[in-house]
Amino acid sequence: MKKLIIAAFAVVAIAIAPKANAQTKMVGGAAMYPTKNIIENAVNSKDHKTLVAAVKAAGLVETLEGTGPFTVFAPTDEAFNKLPAGTVDNLVKPENKATLTKILTYHVVAGRLSAKDILMQVKAGNGKAELKTVSGGTLTAMADGKKLYLVDEKGGKSWITIADVFQSNGVIHVVNTVLMPN
């Protein structure tokens, strides 16, 4: 009987393991584990070094390590490089912390919204869905086929290039442009 119970646990463990691995996505050359929080995963992505540095400069590390849940639209380093020269260096200065914080929290929505959740809102909203950001601003989500994109308050457009990177305290969607609030 004891061997039967052990064998049953082994079968269950093997059956569960592929599901756990299937939820782990690669971002910036690093595995993003659904058992880790947003910060624990983001620091390992080679494509998000600028974002991680900005989050640290804004003092948002503790918040994004919290229970959430959060939906984070995470711009890549390439997205930050699209900004005018010197913008990032200027934003991470201590005297610009409030502006940096506003920009970063404009990329965060309360709750855990998967790409499917956002797409359902877009379909229900006749092609558009307004997402209220933690900064108090609004992002407009839209779709082009199955691809989702966001339009910021200044009319800038950012594509979700990697969706549904689930974390213990939310979900990350990688975006290719920094979103700017009014």
Brief rundown of the structure:
Residues 35-179 form the FAS1 domain. This protein has helices spanning 2-23, 38-42, 49-58, 61-65, 77-81, 87-91, 97-105, 115-124; strands at 25-27, 30-32, 70-75, 108-110, 129-132, 138-144, 147-151, 157-167, 170-175. The chain has 182 residues and is α+β, with helices and mostly antiparallel strands.
Tell me what you see in this structure:
- The protein is globular, with a radius of gyration of 18 Å.
- It has helices spanning 2-23, 38-42, 49-58, 61-65, 77-81, 87-91, 97-105, 115-124; strands at residues 25-27, 30-32, 70-75, 108-110, 129-132, 138-144, 147-151, 157-167, 170-175.
- Residues 1-22 have low confidence and may be disordered.
- Strand 6 and strand 7 (147-151) form a beta hairpin.
- Helix 3 crosses helix 7 (97-105).
- It has a seven-stranded mixed beta sheet with strand order 4-3-9-8-7-6-5. A two-stranded antiparallel sheet has the order 1-2.
- With 182 residues, the protein is of the alpha+beta class.
- The longest helix is centred in the N-terminal third of the chain and has 22 residues, at 2-23.
- Helix content is 39%, strand content 26%.
- It has a single domain, classed as FAS1 domain (Roll).
- The chain is built from eight helices and nine strands.
- Residues 1-22 form the signal peptide.
- Keywords: Signal.
- Residues 35-179 form the FAS1 domain.
- It comes from Mucilaginibacter xinganensis.
- This is Fasciclin.
